[in-house]
Amino acid sequence: MENAERKELELFAAKMRRWIVEGVYCAKSGHPGGSLSCTDIICYLYNKEMKVDPQNPKDPDRDRFVLSKGHCAPALYSALGLKGFFDINEMKNLRKIDSFLQGHPCIEHTPGIDMSTGSLGQGISAATGMALAAKLDGKDYRVFSVLGDGEMQEGQVWEALMSAAHNKLDNICAFVDHNGLQIDGNVDDVMSLGDIKAKVTAFGWNAVEIDGHDFDQIEGALKAFNENRGSGKPFFVIANTHKGRGVSFMTDNASWHGSAPKEEQYNIAVGELDAKIKELEG
Ligand SMILES: Cc1ncc(C[n+]2csc(CCOP(=O)(O)OP(=O)(O)O)c2C)c(N)n1
Ligand SMILES: [Mg+2]
User: By C-alpha distance, which of 113, 140, 139, 131 is closest to 205?
Assistant: First the structure.
């Protein structure tokens, strides 16, 4: 991709991260670590890949997005807000009573949300159902989903993977945000996933492995997904990432899975992200 295009994506992602930190700080709760690790994937999808219209969020022909790791809602909300689905300043009301930006995505109240998620394992199942619906309705839309690596320990995920392959859903592209950490520490210490690529391939999907913070590699994976359409096989992307990416003291640190920064930590995080935004705007 051209340098200017990459820089534009980096700037959007830096703004997303700035709003994630703002939202979680204002709420005094939430999940910054996993939101910051999937930011670049969601940034790319909403800026370059998905056919969606902020003015017409229920367009029946739109591409769908399901955040299966629903606790990372701040990442999705920041992308939707920056794209104009709603006023981005609503991020300051994250998790407040009566706000439409609750701790987990809700299809009923939030423009741009295609599925309510939060109970790990369910999102990818719903995404599979949506991809099957597209096939049955003769529609061309695609379904994108992002799972957590800890989430992949859920048995329901593997039922969904089996179902998608059985139904030949080559219109679904699932990413795992492979940050190596879950709520209690290392995924490998809690319950190792083993060779994810070998497993999902054995479950009938085609798969690629990428650096989930590298926009050229994200683009390459999506190109491979689009070329894979017609194969009758669903497509899986193992995106290697860092939890807490973009904020020095949160990076690769499981303790930032589900906690909000105190004022001093907020100031450091915002200082780092504002400097990044300034550098990219310059
Ligand atoms: C069914 C279910 N069990 C437990 C939880 C609580 N929970 C929320 S996040 C999380 C850890 C998820 O780890 P991972 O999927 O790796 O997320 P990430 O690292 O991307 O934040 C858990 C256990 C849940 N949301 N749903
Ligand atoms: Mg994880």
Answer: 131
Of all protein residues, the one whose alpha carbon is nearest to atom 18 of ligand 1 is 34
Domains in the chain (CATH in brackets) are 3-281 (3.40.50.970)
> In what order do the strands lie in the sheet containing 206-211?
64-67, 143-148, 172-178, 235-240, 206-211
The answer to whether 257 and 47 have CB atoms below 8 angstroms apart is: no
Asked whether 272 and 65 are in contact (CB, 8 A), the reply is: no
Distances (CA, A) of 227 to 132, 219, 224, 231: 19, 12, 5, 9
Rg (CA), the chain: 18
Q: pLDDT by residue (tens digit) across 182-229?
A: 999 999 999 999 999 999 999 999 999 999 999 999 999 999 999 999
C-alpha 71 – ligand 1 centre gap (Å): 7
What is the 171 CA–ligand 1 centroid distance (Å)? 26
SS3 content of the chain, % helix, strand, coil (to 5): 50, 10, 40
For residues 144 and 171, what is the distance between their CA atoms, to the nearest angstrom? 9
How far is residue 124's CA from residue 157's CA, in Å, rounded to a whole number? 7
- Tokens in use for 28? 């005094």
Q: How far is the CA of 52 from the centre of ligand 2 (A)?
A: 27
Does position 282 have pLDDT exceeding 90, yes or no? Answer: no
> Which atom in ligand 1 lies closest to the alpha carbon of residue 34?
21
Across the range 260-281, mean pLDDT stands at 98
pTM score, whole prediction = 0.98
Nearest ligand atom owner, CA of 34: 1
CA dist., res. 186 & res. 180, Å (int): 6
Nearest CA to ligand 1 atom 7: 183
